[in-house]
């Protein structure tokens, strides 16, 4: 430093500065810049010793930017200038910059007695010091006056009664004036005092309104709490990031069905999920190793609700689930092994009985005998005649109904069995699958395409047991000798045709095999806690995950568009809730467009008119076959013809019956203000014999009469099985009376297999049933053929698309384990009504679906409610300019 000129030494940042704490005034030690930065060399700055200057002047010397105090004693001019020693190279000059006067230093009171007044040295409340005491007195008196603004809120300084003014310590060389300091206490005004007068009694209407407001506030708080729990199950999902490892270039293939995550990562993720017992989320495509962003630290699993994903919306994220050791396995009794075992044993027993009767008939035929013998049918007792003519077909019809009960349940619950598999199922195999509204004889083909074998075995067994076996049975029992060889006085015999009988036995054995394999298939676990009845059953499963996000924009979309949007993901039923599963980059399911008509095929007029016409033609054909000469030869040649035609009517009616059952809850919702019981209403799995009674009790009369029609079709099949005679012989006066006309021949009434009473009872039943079916069918197409839905229903995806933005979803939080009865009672306690139409969703936009009342508008087919008004968030956009 010796070689550096003295002007350059002053203020050098390299100079070491160490303050002398003992020489710094006590008021400036704490937080003082002098303490923090140190002192300059002695030859560069004035001495810290007091030379008749105040503390503020000393601060002004140390900090030139500080303004001078107007109340401090002015030092001489020489001591207040900032000068520097002249350089040996440059002559000294008087600097133009002069240090301004510093403000008066604060006074620090040594009094420690509690003073309730604010700190006078708080910069927010302190008043600036004045030069003149007279001016201060005048202004102080003005500030202490009461005004309309403050209303007595300003008060003078509060003195301490215990301490006198003489005890206060004063700063030396500082002029202090014992004047009170005014304070503005207007901001501390309390609540105005209430007047002590008689209170006005609130009216009853005001009390009711206040209680109503309080209840609405409680409901709003509860709604917000429940809404926050939608998708709460995703908090247990952890995201496992995988660093990108470039793979060697491979030949491009067009294989479908590959996952968005490669096979190795998929297997590792599934193993990790099973090992940890947690749900893992894996992004479909990660192109960088993002672990470097964390300083090379190990990447820990993170919650998907608090962490960003590779795809912003999570639409390409795959989810892997551990195996549930306590997976529930609820199934209805008609799908349990006791019921299916019973059906299998009955099939084998009837096949054995059929073969036994065939063998017995063949042995008796060798002896010119039969199972029954008579000269004319009137000789048989009522029990014998009924056992011969109606009992076999009736037994097989009832057996077919028992299979229908199981078949309905298997078709209804098969999507849940697919979802409960280890890796779930695609939407085409589960959410978009509909067997109930599909043509029953085509169901096995659809099930075979998706390899859902339980449906194949169940539907085949039902079709054979309820349709084919009664037809074959009606042809296996015959009366001998043949009609042309019969004579009036000779014996007639009832025998079993071996060929038709063996066909019946083979069909029954086939049914038993299907039942045995079905029992093996029913070892699977359904993943259900209870019966998922109706809309509520599906809605309760969709509140713990983000599965509803996949249905965005599908409010009024037809089924093929829903399938197209959902085909890129697998879905799974885990812990009684529906979840998104593995992401599929290239979906293997082909999308077939079936049109946009929201009605099932059997409820459209193009199918209804031919169906009603067929019933009418069948009703007309029966009298033709019975009373027209030569026409009855057709029934004699093909004895099962009428039974086969009646079976076709039964199958078509059953399809229409399923459609009516499925549509009933939605039809009630479309009429607005539906009761809560509507959400759990489900007729699809109801016993056909109990269905009419249940529907009548619920006042759903159309469903009841259609259910009665299904029972009548079964009776129709039994009655027409005996129509193979010449009806003219049963007209009074045209039959042969043995006493009046001793003529013998094959054209008399007594040579047929009908009695006068049985013929007319059967004929009247058949015609009456057909007329009833025509009337009910006309009523069905009159009440249900119009379009009151945006799309066809019958699938879980269709229901989820209706409710994905519904506010009523908060009602189903934590209800996935409720039984149907518990869910019904729970909804009825809510006291709400529901409707199908346009409503304001949870996202603030208009949606079409099912929600609690009130809704914006009912649904009208072909009318888009969103185009009839403009929302607040759409104002100013170019679409609504």
From TrEMBL:
| Residue numbers spanned by region Disordered | 1-171, 244-272
Keyword match Acetylation: no
Tell me yes or no: is Membrane among this UniProt entry's keywords: yes
Where is the sequence biased in composition, kind Basic and acidic residues?
151-171
Tell me where the transmembrane regions lie: 337-358, 455-480, 500-520, 609-628, 634-653, 701-723, 759-782
Matches recorded under Pfam families: DUF3433
> In what ranges is there compositional bias, type Polar residues?
53-63
Q: Where is the composition biased (Low complexity)?
A: 91-101
Q: Which UniProt keywords apply?
A: Membrane, Transmembrane, Transmembrane helix
Q: What is this protein called?
A: Uncharacterized protein
What is the organism field in this record?
Zopfia rhizophila CBS 207.26
């Amino acid at each position: 430093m010796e070689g550096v000129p003295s002007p350059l030494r002053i203020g050098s940042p390299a100079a070491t500065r160490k303050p002398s704490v003992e020489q710094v005034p006590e008021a400036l030690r704490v937080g003082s810049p002098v303490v923090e930065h140190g002192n300059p060399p002695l030859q560069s700055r004035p001495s810290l010793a007091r030379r008749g200057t105040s503390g503020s002047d000393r601060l002004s010397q140390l900090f030139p930017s500080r303004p001078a105090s107007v109340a401090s004693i002015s030092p001489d001019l020489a001591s207040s200038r900032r000068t520097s020693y002249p350089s040996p190279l440059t002559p000294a000059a008087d600097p133009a910059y002069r240090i301004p006067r510093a403000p008066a230093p604060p006074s620090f009171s040594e009094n420690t007695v509690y003073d309730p007044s604010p700190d006078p040295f708080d910069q927010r409340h302190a008043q600036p010091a004045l030069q003149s005491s007279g001016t201060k007195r005048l202004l102080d008196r003005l500030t202490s006056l009461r005004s309309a603004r403050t209303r007595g809120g300003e008060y003078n300084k509060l003195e301490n009664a215990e301490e006198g003014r003489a005890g206060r310590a004063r700063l030396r060389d500082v002029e202090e004036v014992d004047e009170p300091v005014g304070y503005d206490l207007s901001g501390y005004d309390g609540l105005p005092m209430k007047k002590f007068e008689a209170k006005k009694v609130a009216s009853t209407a005001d009390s009711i309104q206040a209680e109503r407001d309080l209840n609405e506030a409680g409901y709003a708080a509860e709604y917000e709490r429940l809404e926050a729990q939608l998708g709460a199950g995703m908090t247990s999902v952890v995201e496992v990031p995988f660093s990108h490892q470039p793979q060697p270039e491979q030949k491009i293939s067009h294989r479908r069905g590959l996952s968005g995550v490669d096979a190795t990562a998929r297997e590792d993720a599934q193993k990790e999920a099973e090992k940890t017992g947690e749900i893992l989320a894996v992004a479909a495509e990660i192109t960088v190793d993002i672990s470097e962003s964390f300083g090379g630290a190990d990447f820990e699993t993170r919650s998907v609700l608090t962490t960003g994903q590779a795809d912003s919306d999570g639409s390409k994220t795959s989810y892997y689930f551990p195996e549930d050791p306590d997976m529930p396995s609820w199934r209805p009794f008609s799908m349990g092994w006791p019921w299916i075992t019973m059906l299998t044993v009955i099939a084998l027993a009837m096949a054995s009985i059929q073969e036994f009767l065939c063998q017995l008939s063949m042995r008796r035929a060798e002896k010119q005998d039969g199972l029954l013998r008579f000269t004319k049918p009137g000789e048989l007792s009522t029990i014998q005649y009924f056992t011969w003519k109606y009992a076999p077909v009736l037994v097989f019809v009832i057996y077919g109904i028992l299979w229908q009960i199981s078949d309905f349940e298997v078709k209804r619950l098969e999507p849940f069995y697919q979802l409960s598999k280890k890796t779930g199922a695609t939407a085409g195999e589960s959410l978009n699958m509909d067997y109930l509204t599909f043509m029953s004889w085509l169901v096995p083909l659809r099930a075979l395409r998706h390899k859902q074998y339980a449906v194949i075995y169940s539907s085949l067994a039902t079709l054979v047991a309820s349709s084919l076996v009664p037809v074959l049975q009606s042809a296996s029992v015959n009366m001998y000798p043949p009609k042309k060889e019969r004579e009036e006085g000779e014996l007639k015999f009832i025998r079993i045709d071996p060929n038709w009988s063996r066909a019946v036995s083979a069909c029954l054995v086939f049914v038993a095999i299907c039942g045995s394999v079905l029992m093996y298939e029913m070892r699977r676990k359904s993943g259900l806690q209870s019966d998922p009845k109706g809309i509520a059953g599906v809605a309760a499963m969709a509140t713990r995950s983000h599965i509803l996000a996949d249905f965005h924009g599908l409010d009024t979309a037809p089924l093929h568009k829903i399938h197209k949007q959902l085909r890129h993901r697998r879905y799974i039923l885990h812990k009684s809730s529906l979840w998104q599963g593995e992401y599929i980059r290239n979906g293997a399911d082909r999308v077939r467009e079936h049109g946009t008509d929201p009605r099932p095929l059997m409820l459209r007029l193009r199918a209804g008119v031919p169906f009603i016409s067929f019933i009418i033609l069948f009703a007309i054909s029966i009298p033709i076959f019975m009373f027209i000469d030569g026409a009855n030869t057709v029934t004699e040649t093909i004895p099962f013809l009428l039974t086969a035609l009646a079976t076709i009517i039964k199958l078509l009616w059953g399809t229409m019956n399923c459609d009516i059952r499925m549509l009933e809850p939605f039809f009630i919702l479309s009429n607005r203000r539906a009761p809560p019981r509507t959400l759990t209403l489900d007729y699809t799995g109801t016993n056909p014999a109990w269905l009419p009674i249940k529907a009548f009790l619920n006042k759903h009369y159309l469903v009841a009469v259609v259910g009665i029609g299904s029972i009548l079709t079964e009776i129709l099949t039994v009655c027409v099985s005996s129509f193979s005679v010449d009806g003219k012989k049963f007209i009074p006066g045209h039959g042969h009376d043995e006493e009046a006309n001793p003529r013998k021949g094959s054209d008399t009434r007594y040579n047929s297999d009908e009695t006068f009473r049985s013929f007319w009872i059967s004929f009247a039943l058949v015609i009456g049933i057909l007329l009833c079916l025509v009337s009910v069918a006309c009523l069905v197409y009159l009440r249900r053929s119009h379009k009151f839905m945006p799309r066809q229903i019958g699938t879980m995806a269709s229901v989820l698309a209706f409710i994905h933005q519904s506010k009523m979803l908060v009602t189903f939080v934590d209800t996935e384990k409720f039984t149907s009865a518990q869910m019904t009672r729970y909804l009825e306690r809510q006291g709400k009504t529901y409707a199908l139409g346009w409503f304001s969703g949870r996202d603030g936009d208009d949606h079409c679906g099912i929600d609690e009342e009130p809704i914006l508008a009912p649904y009208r087919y072909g009318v888009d409610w969103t185009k009839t008004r403009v929302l607040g968030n759409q104002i100013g956009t170019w679409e609504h300019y």
